[in-house]
Amino acid sequence: TDRIIGAVTSIAEAADRNSGRAAETALAAGALQNAVLQVAATSEENSAAAEEVAASTQEMTAHAAKLEQTSAQMRALAEELKATSERFQWERRKEQLPVAVDRRRPQAA
Q1: CA-to-CA distance for 86 and 12, rounded, in angstroms?
Q2: 0.90 cut: is pTM over it?
């Protein structure tokens, strides 16, 4: 009977050790599950952030194109204004130029 009691005691001790290991394994599995959930949440946040960045980039590209178009229009208007101003100044100078009067006597033919 001592052998039986020793064997049962040995089995009970092994069961206790296994029970403790099972609890540790359960805790580790819970921690691992939390870590996986955090990675998944972070991945979703990163994906959403990447989509927002892509949308912002497209919007900024459209704004840049519009700005370039407006800039080109302004350059064209500036050139037109410059040319008009130069013509106006030339016309003003022509009006202020003294007119040469031919005071020679007409020659007989």
Answers
A1: 108
A2: no
